[in-house]
Amino acid sequence: MTYPRVTLAGYSIPHPSLECVNVRVQTTGDPAREVLKDACQELMLMNRHVRSVFDKDVSEFKEEQAHLKAEEERKNAEEEELKKQRDLLESMDIESN
Amino acid sequence: MTTKGEKRIVSEEDKIFAKNFNIMDHPDIPTGLPPHLQLQRTRVLCKNDAPIHTASVSYSGAYNAVGVDNSVKLENFSENFKVDVIEISKDGMELTFDMIGIDAAIANAFRRILLAELPTMAFEKVFIANNTSIVQDEVLAQRMGLVPIAADPKLFEYLSENDQPNEKNTIVFKLHAKCAKGEGRKKVLTEQLIWLPNGSELVKESGDSNSKPKTYTSFSRSQKESFPEFADNPITPSYPDILIAKLGPGHEIELEAHAVKGIGKTHAKWSPVATAWYRMLPEVILLGEVEDEDAERLVKACPENVFDIEDMGNGRKRATVARPRDCTLCRQCVRQNYGEEVNKGVEEKEWIENVSLRRVKNHFIFKIESTGSLPPDVLFTEAVKILEDKCERVIANLS
Q1: Cβ of residue B92 closer than 8 Å to a chain A Cβ
Q2: How far is the alpha carbon of A16 from chain B, nearest alpha carbon, in Å?
């Protein structure tokens, strides 16, 4: 319906047990078959675009997550190092005292 | 001002100016839709009793009178379409993402395909050799069918009625659980299912005792050879701790289960998602100032903490919308007296008018929870591919 060449578009399912859909397309002069085909073609292109954008975003997100995780692990490793050093100093203090 | 009768000399410049003049180009004339129509077109207003403006305005010539084109062109769509991944759960099986700029019909199509038309592997035939437990054969078989299997369905083919089950279309598992007399009750979990890469071990009885014993499947090669992915990682159910049955002392279950490829339309056991749903982005607008005491009550009323208090200076406070995304449309903020108990003698307020709850029509927050066969982002990509294939089929049949 959002297609500028279409004046009316609708579908009906005569009975839910039968696998049959009646589609009605009314156009502003062009043959309805061609308009339906063009609309399906555009839908296909839209889907491809959706897929590419989605894939790109998911891979970006996963990269970000990997970065964040690597940074967190680095920070944890640093903290552990600091802790070890502190413990060592404390034990040295106790010994000297 | 020229009076009637006087001739006015029209220069060439004036003629060119008159030809190219379009009132809509004038800077003071507003272009696009008037704000109230734009609101109707892009937002669902969730009023106190029911939502309004829920249908999308689909007709391409709907706003021709105002000079606005309502058709959906591929270039506009490609420019405005955005995807934002919000969250992937730790085990990678739950995905939350935003889709902006897409029509509700297509978002719903993706959801329906995710639920019903993506193939998976699930147990279809269960050969029960021995079952002395209290769980009946058919109930046991039904429970086996619902167990999710972590195998990529793209590697396998469909098994039709006339085909022989072979290594390309069947996965065979064995289960043998026993509870000895004198022991306590035992649980039968999915981790006790053992994969048989060489096919069925149950022998078919045939009158011919000279020929090689036939089993219920005809595997020509081990699946470990045909599928290099499974050479080192055996196929297992997605979760090892699903309870299948319980055995008392002296009970035994011995069975073989064959898994085949199917889609959710035939039976829900073949649905690759635990569930997939979407909601539209909520928008909460304060139509007027909410100050002081009212602001406090508004902030307290919302169970999702959508509102916040802001200091205006002079000791006065104001309510602002801080997290509209968390709004669950419980409508506590618009209820009479903010949903608090009304004390006798205190004036009862009408429905609160200065909070407007809305939904953005083309912004969807999708959540996909996979059962384990494929990660949710792969599932969504497959769903989009399936819609593309359907379009292709229609085009092919129309030609």
Answers
A1: no
A2: 14
